[in-house]
Structure formats: structure tokens, C-alpha cells
Design goal:
By secondary structure, this protein is of the alpha+beta class. A 4-stranded antiparallel β-sheet has the order 1-2-3-4, covered by helices on one side. A hairpin with a 2-residue loop joins β1 and β2. The radius of gyration is 25 Å and the shape is elongated.
Length: about 190
């Protein structure tokens, strides 16, 4: 192939690339664009369940246990390698605003009431726990996950997780995980890696 043919092809490829790169997008200069005042979420929000009928109590102005998590440690902190926080970011759950935490605590109170009935009955089967959560409108579409006394559910606002056994009933309100354990729903911490 001659040098002039190679140069012609290179020039044509460069022109095609430039034409393609400038033709991207849907906005055109000088044309007004209709824009929403609110951003459109890139996901479908989860349906709600375990919602209190009244207004949740106002969040406390200050509490002995802070709901604000500490920022991830950068660099070498103690015995950890310098990139420990980055390598474990997949285990972080979303932060909760005071308003979401208050809604979550109200939902957790409803869940606790239902699961306390399970404890009193003494039937700790997954079927019975699922029925108790179902009484509050929580089902598979809410990320309900049950395993060996552990339960988790996404109420549409927050995650409520814990254990229900003969000896204990625990409840924890938290945000959904960025990368939850595969096959479990958004409220189960990933035990593997990403």
C-alpha cells in the first residue's frame, strides 16, 4: 500500500472520529431544553412497608450514640494497610439523615412488636417470621431475607435487621449496603469482596 493511500485512510478515520465525537448527545445549541426541577432517580424506589400510621416522632437533637458514622480512615491507621478503607468500602451502608433514622425507628418498633409475638409463640421458622413481616406488608419486593433466625427488610426508607430467637430479639436500623451480599436483598452486609 502506498504512503498516500495510508495517509488518505488515516485522514478519513480522523475525520470520521471527529464527526462522531461532535454528534453525541441530544442537546443542540440555541434550542431550549425542558428540564425537571428535580433529578430523576436512576432506579425504581422500593415499595414501602412497616410504615407507622401517624407522624414519626421528631429526631432527637442530640443523643449519646451518634448516628453519624465516622469518616473512613485514609492512610495507615494502626495495623491496617494504607488502602484498607478503600478495599472495604463495599461493606459500607448508606448514611441516614435524622429524619430517615426517626422513620426507621418507628418502623422498627412495628417490626419489633410483630417479632415479639413470634418469640412468645416459640415458632422461629422462616415461614412464621415471614408471616409476621407480611402482617406489616413486607414481602420479597422489600428485600426480606431470612436465615437461621436472622432477618432483614427494607421498609422503603431504611433497612431493619436483626435476630429473633428464643433467647433474644435484636433490631438494628441502618442504610442499605452499596454492594449487599448477592441473593439477599439490600440490607445484608456483603461477606465477600467486590
Amino acid at each position: 500500500m502506498s504512503l498516500s493511500t495510508q495517509l488518505s485512510r488515516a485522514a478519513a478515520a480522523a475525520a470520521l472520529l471527529a464527526l462522531t465525537a461532535t454528534a453525541c448527545g441530544t442537546e443542540h445549541a440555541g434550542q431550549p431544553q425542558a428540564r425537571s426541577a428535580f433529578p430523576t432517580p436512576s432506579f425504581t424506589p422500593r415499595p414501602k412497608c412497616a410504615q407507622p400510621t401517624g407522624t414519626p416522632p421528631a429526631p432527637p437533637s442530640s443523643s449519646p450514640t451518634s448516628s453519624t458514622p465516622e469518616p473512613p480512615q485514609r492512610g495507615n491507621s494502626g495495623d491496617r494497610p494504607p488502602n484498607y478503607a478503600d478495599n472495604h468500602a463495599y461493606r459500607m451502608s448508606a448514611e441516614l439523615s435524622p429524619a430517615k433514622r426517626a422513620k426507621g425507628e418507628a418502623s422498627a418498633a412495628l417490626i419489633e412488636s410483630e417479632l415479639e409475638r413470634v418469640r412468645k409463640e416459640g415458632d422461629f421458622s422462616e415461614k412464621r417470621i415471614a408471616k409476621a413481616l407480611g402482617n406489616l406488608g413486607c414481602g420479597k419486593q422489600h428485600g426480606v431475607y431470612l436465615w437461621n433466625g436472622f432477618y432483614s427488610v427494607h421498609t422503603g426508607d431504611v433497612c431493619v435487621s436483626g435476630y429473633v430467637t428464643e433467647k433474644e430479639l435484636t433490631i438494628r436500623v441502618h442504610g442499605a449496603y452499596a454492594e449487599p451480599q448477592p441473593g439477599t436483598g439490600p440490607c445484608v452486609e456483603n461477606r465477600g469482596g467486590h
